[in-house]
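During the reporting period, we have paired protein sequences with backbone structure tokens. One record among many follows, to show the layout:
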Amino acid sequence: MTRVAVVGATGFVGEAVCAALRNRGHEVLPVRAPRLTADPSAAVPELEVAALKEAAAAADAVVNCAGMPDATSGNRTSMMGANAVLPGLIAEIAAVSRVRFVHVSSAAVQGRRPVLDASSEMAPFSPYSESKAAGERAALVHPNTIVYRPPGVHGAQRRVTRAIARLARSPMSSVAGTGSANTAQALIENVGDAIAFLATCSAQPPTVVSHPTEGLTAASLLEDLGGKRPRHIPQPLARAIVDSSFIVAKAWPGINGAARRLEMLWFGQGQAPSWLTTAGWTPPSPRSTWRAIGRALTYEPERKDNP
């Protein structure tokens, strides 16, 4: 049994990680994330930092699930504290305790690259992705750090999933061309279990690990969530609309996230083979889970995301 300290244990990803760790027979030490800002003159919450140090000293591994997850937000100042400063602090504390540290980043750091992979190449395109890229750099300065990059993470309780499901049920449901391209999306149960695997496996993971494809295409994602086939838009027209959205985003950076989400829904994005697959990890939730989520959301009222 491994004892794992989970920072941000009450959040969307943190809850899934805690559940996966317990299912695997490990002990969980929930840790409240210190509230940090990017302002160097701001006071550091000493009591919360002390609690983090104590948990790291008592653990065999530390996982950071904390951060600001709103990919469409334009608030750079608040995001940098949670997504960039905090990972560096936790990595430093884990290094002092000489334990494995798994930092949950995001595939968004590679932006609009055709294929997501575990390389050091990053191309952030929005305040959110810039803050996550800065968090990777801050964490990887310290030894024993593993950066995990999940793609879009989904579950019935998440706002973005419910929004896509509503779109998928509507007459606006559409993809570019045939919609047969891979789309980089993942179920929350699979993401939580992948993180638990990285924190506790006997093998030494590489410094950066990407999430493997879950076998979805742009069209099958909408069909699974909406229960009907999406319309097919000519690729040149769809590309012109997306490119125009990014041009507008140069004047209003806050819409970069929305433009990228539209591009992902229409065109998808490739995923390179993952170390997780090579190491023998398999996702616990099958493809059929997407259809179950779609059916459940058809009859379920709106709910708010976990903090």
User: Anything to note?
Assistant: The first strand starts at residue 3 and ends at 7. The two ends are 29 Å apart (CA to CA). The chain has eleven helices and twelve strands. The mean pLDDT is 93.
